[in-house]
Design brief:
Helices cover about 35% and strands about 25% of the residues. Strands 1, 2, 3, 4, 5 and 6 form a six-stranded antiparallel beta sheet that branches. The chain is globular, with a radius of gyration of 16 Å. It has seven helices and six strands; from the N terminus they run ααααααβββββαβ. It has one domain (about 1-190): Nuclear Transport Factor 2, Chain: A, CATH 3.10.450. With about 190 residues, it is an alpha+beta fold.
């Protein structure tokens, strides 16, 4: 398992739709979840998050970078280095016997405005095959829209637990945006 942890750590800073090894929105009140479901910006958010997840599962790095917030992309030097590092990380994971098999969205919080941007927490489940089995990783990503919810980009939740790391990856975000804790991945028993 240590090699798995190292491989997943390599991926942690890359991509927005991958796993960051939540009962993420369990704390969100039911009333807020219902309001979010009625918000037309959520439909756009869901479409973009699904496209981001599909790009990750399909190894479509060009599309993945399109759905990753520019501030996160720029932390590794821009679009080309981001794509290169993602490809190399995914190759290393595959060489270690780790592959992403499925991506499923969970709940999304009602968008919160801060400055020119909207923010939403999007929960996700990712299934990975590993040597000897499968893992389910529940996590989240932060959706960010600068055009009132018409288009969205994302930053993976891994690393956002550290308040000092957030400014490097996110634009100014609302103080009320709650970053969920990310649980350890769990083994899937296929018996």
């Amino acid at each position: 398992m240590p090699r798995l942890a190292v491989s997943l750590a390599l991926l942690a800073g890359l991509g927005s739709c991958f796993v960051s090894p939540t009962p993420a929105l369990a704390q969100a009140p039911a009333r807020e979840k219902a309001k979010a479901a009625e918000d037309p910006r959520i439909a756009s958010l869901r479409r973009a998050a699904e496209a981001c997840g599909k790009a990750a599962i399909d190894n479509d790095w060009e599309k993945l970078v399109d759905y990753t917030h520019p501030k996160a992309v720029n932390t590794v030097g821009g679009r080309k280095p981001f794509i290169f590092l993602t490809k190399m990380t995914m190759k290393r994971l595959k060489d270690d016997g780790i592959e992403f098999k499925s991506f499923k969205l969970g709940e999304m919080t009602k968008p919160i405005k801060e400055g020119e941007n909207l923010f939403s927490i999007v929960s996700k489940d990712v299934v990975l095959t590993i040597p000897g089995g499968k893992l389910l990783a529940t996590s989240y990503m932060v959706g960010i829209s600068s055009d009132d919810g018409k288009t969205w980009t994302f930053v993976d939740g891994n690393g956002l637990e550290d308040p000092k790391a957030r400014p490097r990856l996110l634009p100014k975000y609302p103080a009320e945006l709650k970053f969920p804790e990310i649980p350890e991945p769990t083994t899937i028993d296929e018996k």
